[in-house]
């Protein structure tokens, strides 16, 4: 009886989605939950470049609930502190009890807890979590509702879509009915990963948004290459906010929408790495240091393909390397970029050139390789830009199929 009363009062005094959204300052630009990608230092540097809200990496709920060492490593003393808010902590789970135990450890150190229903990787298949729960709606409902009834803070959910538009909508409604206060919809199916990633379907995401209760706090995830794509997504989808994973991972400047400032939107590699290193040096624990190397490999991808000597030095770093070794790499990068800027025609070379509007609605940029830039995934030897064109055709075909199904259903 006491437990039931406690759950009743917690559920009824908890912030609604709109109240939480307002409390967080109505965020528009959101760092996605990324394993080895959205740890403390990266969240902090992303906020400096305009991110309004950050998610933690996906944390394993059973391990977080039962393993002190895992919990201390993955969520250290600075995680969720004043320098790390607003923050939503994400868990993967397939057991409501373990999920609740895990969430209880962080409910006083974050603004909400998110359930990962989108991870499409093989490890998620093996562990039966993420997008591999999409066939078990009863379990998903129990996971969300257990948190909703028993946590002081709200619960949110991040999902992928099905090829079937109506099923995708029903899935989103089920998550909301179970108690999710925010809903993030990644406009790709579970099969769209790696070499099959393709183009996220904004039209399907918009269809879901338009058919949910109007008070729903709705985030869209997918297809953000440049800062201008954020406002374009908000207008086309009608979402409250836009989440970026890979785009942010290769260039946090993707969140800089206040001004068209090349130094903020496509920062010089030397300046960015120095700034990022100084953030890492402030962070307690080992996770931010461990991820430093992988972040440099991603964000400096084009630069390192030319300056392979720098790549070799980065490869030597480990989480146990002293900060002096980290800084030596930073200094090496600064020296290489300084030589680039000694060229007589650098003012002409150091320009971001904007292309014409493409049929997917955005514009490509040609960015000098010594600046952070978007990532175009190559598929089967095709350039990333070709992949976007091919994927756009499939999105348009999907829309036509959905229209035909809707017409047939009204006959």
From TrEMBL:
Enzymatic reactions: 5,6-dihydrouridine(16) in tRNA + NAD(+) = uridine(16) in tRNA + NADH + H(+); a 5,6-dihydrouridine in mRNA + NAD(+) = a uridine in mRNA + NADH + H(+); 5,6-dihydrouridine(17) in tRNA + NADP(+) = uridine(17) in tRNA + NADPH + H(+); 5,6-dihydrouridine(17) in tRNA + NAD(+) = uridine(17) in tRNA + NADH + H(+)
Keywords of this entry: Flavoprotein, FMN, mRNA processing, NAD, NADP, Oxidoreductase, tRNA processing
Top-level taxon of origin: Eukaryota
Name by which UniProt lists this protein: tRNA-dihydrouridine(16/17) synthase [NAD(P)(+)]
A GO biological-process term: mRNA processing
Keyword DNA-binding: no
Organism: Ogataea parapolymorpha (strain ATCC 26012 / BCRC 20466 / JCM 22074 / NRRL Y-7560 / DL-1)
Pfam families attached to this UniProt entry: Dus
InterPro entries, alphabetized: Aldolase_TIM, DUS-like_FMN-bd, tRNA_hU_synthase_CS
Family indicated by similarity: Belongs to the Dus family. Dus1 subfamily.
């Amino acid at each position: 009886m006491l437990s039931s009363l406690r759950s009743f009062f917690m559920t009824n005094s908890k912030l609604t989605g709109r109240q939480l959204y307002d409390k967080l300052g109505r965020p528009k630009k959101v760092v996605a939950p990324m394993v080895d990608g959205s740890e403390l230092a990266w969240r902090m540097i992303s906020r400096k470049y305009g991110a309004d809200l950050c998610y933690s990496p996906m944390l394993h709920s059973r391990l977080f609930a039962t393993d002190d060492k895992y919990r201390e490593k993955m969520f250290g003393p600075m995680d969720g502190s004043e320098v790390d808010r607003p923050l939503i902590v994400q868990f993967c789970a397939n057991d409501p009890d373990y999920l609740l135990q895990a969430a209880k450890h962080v409910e006083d150190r974050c603004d909400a807890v998110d359930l990962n229903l989108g991870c499409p990787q093989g490890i998620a298949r093996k562990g039966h979590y993420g997008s591999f729960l999409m066939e078990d709606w009863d379990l998903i409902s129990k996971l969300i509702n257990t948190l909703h009834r028993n946590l002081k803070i709200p619960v949110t959910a991040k999902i992928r879509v099905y090829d079937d538009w109506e099923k995708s909508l029903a899935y989103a409604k089920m998550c909301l009915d179970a108690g999710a206060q925010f809903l993030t919809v990644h406009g790709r199916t579970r099969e769209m990963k790696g070499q099959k990633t393709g183009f996220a379907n904004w039209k399907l995401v918009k269809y879901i948004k338009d058919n949910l209760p109007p008070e729903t706090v709705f985030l869209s995830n997918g297809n953000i290459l440049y800062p201008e794509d954020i406002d374009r997504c908000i207008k086309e989808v009608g979402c409250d906010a836009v989440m970026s994973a890979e785009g942010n991972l290769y260039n946090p400047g993707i969140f800089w929408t206040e001004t068209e400032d090349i130094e903020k939107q496509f920062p010089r590699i030397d300046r960015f790495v120095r700034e990022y290193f100084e953030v890492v040096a402030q962070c307690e624990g080992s996770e931010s240091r461990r991820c430093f190397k992988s972040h440099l490999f991603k964000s400096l991808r084009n630069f390192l393909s030319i300056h392979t000597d720098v790549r070799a030095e980065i490869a030597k770093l480990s989480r146990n390397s002293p900060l002096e070794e980290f800084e030596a790499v930073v200094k090496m990068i600064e020296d290489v970029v300084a030589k680039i800027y000694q060229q007589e025609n650098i003012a002409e070379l150091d320009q971001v050139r904007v292309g014409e509007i493409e049929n997917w609605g955005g514009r490509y940029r040609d960015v000098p390789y010594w600046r952070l830039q978007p990532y175009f995934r190559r598929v089967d030897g095709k350039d990333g830009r070709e992949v976007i064109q091919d994927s756009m055709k499939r999105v348009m075909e999907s829309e036509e199929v959905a229209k035909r199904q809707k017409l047939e259903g009204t006959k």
